[in-house]
Specification:
four-stranded antiparallel sheet, 5% strand, 52% helix, mainly alpha
């Protein structure tokens, strides 16, 4: 015990701050941090709005509509441009980032008189139209007489039975097995896998979270950040890198791509998500990045070298 106290008392102020910071991040819920107004604003700014990429032709198994050309006035053209901006913002709306759900039902009643009444469970479902899948009331009567709310897996299965979503399978496709993912992942497959992930699972499903983390880590290891730029998955990717405190390569990528303001916004986002008060935010983007490199970066020298290279 004495040696443990001795080690703690020898920690400097910054080390103590980091310990407190890590415990604070662990205690917070991801969804609360993700939907913070300032965090959302920074993520949307970083995502960008490249309409050529957003509206590009994609092979999704649907027939492509023929292009229509028409003469319009300047006012009509401006209205059409505003309309397309609104459509672009809707198409890149970020999927939620959430903590993994707790898979447990809540016991409502225990009736021993029903023990042995049947050999199968009874499921009672509210099929009211317009109720969301998450709010739909589903209860289960077990064979031992226990009446409880449905567990998460049961909730998913019953919702898919009564209100099936097009493209969602009633089983887990082999695509989402880690060994299969590792063989197909690459720049041409990142967005496809993430789109399929959003379709197949809820955002707090363990397999959804596992899949996103595998893809995000693969992107980070191969420095393929620009592949997801101006897509709905770019914001969650940046949030993941900040949350897990591995944004160094991403910042280097932004600097070398001459997106200095974007790199500075990433530092601001990192500070906001991690409550890292050791980073001095400046009005000058390069100064903000240098302050991050000196205080919290794991690859500070590499970040400084990148800044000097583009200077």
């Amino acid at each position: 015990m004495w040696s443990g106290v001795r080690i703690f008392t020898r920690l400097n102020r910054r080390d103590r701050s980091l310990i407190k910071q890590c415990s604070t991040v662990a205690a917070r819920k991801k969804q609360h941090v993700f939907y913070d107004t300032e965090v959302q604003g920074l993520l949307k700014t970083l995502t960008g709005l490249n309409q050529q990429k957003i509206f590009r032709t994609r092979n999704v198994g649907e027939n492509i509509e023929r292009s229509i050309y028409q003469f319009v006035t300047e006012e009509e053209l401006q209205n059409m441009q505003k309309e397309f901006e609104q459509k672009a913002e809707m198409k890149i709306q970020m999927p939620p980032v959430m903590d993994e759900r707790v898979n447990s039902g809540r016991v409502l009643e225990e009736d021993p008189h029903l023990v042995g009444f049947d050999v199968t469970k009874f499921v009672f479902t509210d099929i009211t139209y317009g109720v969301s899948d998450r709010e739909r009331i589903i209860v289960v009567r077990d064979i031992d007489g226990t009446l409880r709310t449905a567990e998460c897996e049961e909730q998913d299965r019953i919702n898919q039975t009564y209100y099936p979503r097009e493209g969602r399978k009633h089983y887990v496709p082999p695509l989402f097995e880690p060994e299969h993912l590792q063989t197909i992942l690459g720049p041409q497959k990142y967005e496809y896998v993430l789109d399929r992930n959003c379709l197949q699972f809820e955002p707090d499903h363990p397999l959804y979270i596992r899949t996103t983390e595998i893809v995000y880590n693969h992107i980070n290891e191969n420095k393929q950040f620009s592949v997801l730029h101006s897509t709905r998955h770019y914001g969650p990717l940046v949030f993941f890198l900040c949350w897990t405190q591995q944004i160094d390569e991403f910042i280097v990528h932004q600097i070398l791509s001459k997106h200095i303001d974007g790199a500075a916004d990433t530092v601001k986002l990192y500070q906001k998500i991690n409550n890292d008060l050791s980073i001095a935010i400046s009005d000058d983007s390069k100064e903000t990045i240098r302050n991050f490199a000196k205080s919290s970066a794991k690859k500070g020298d590499k970040i400084v070298m990148a800044l000097e290279k583009v200077a």
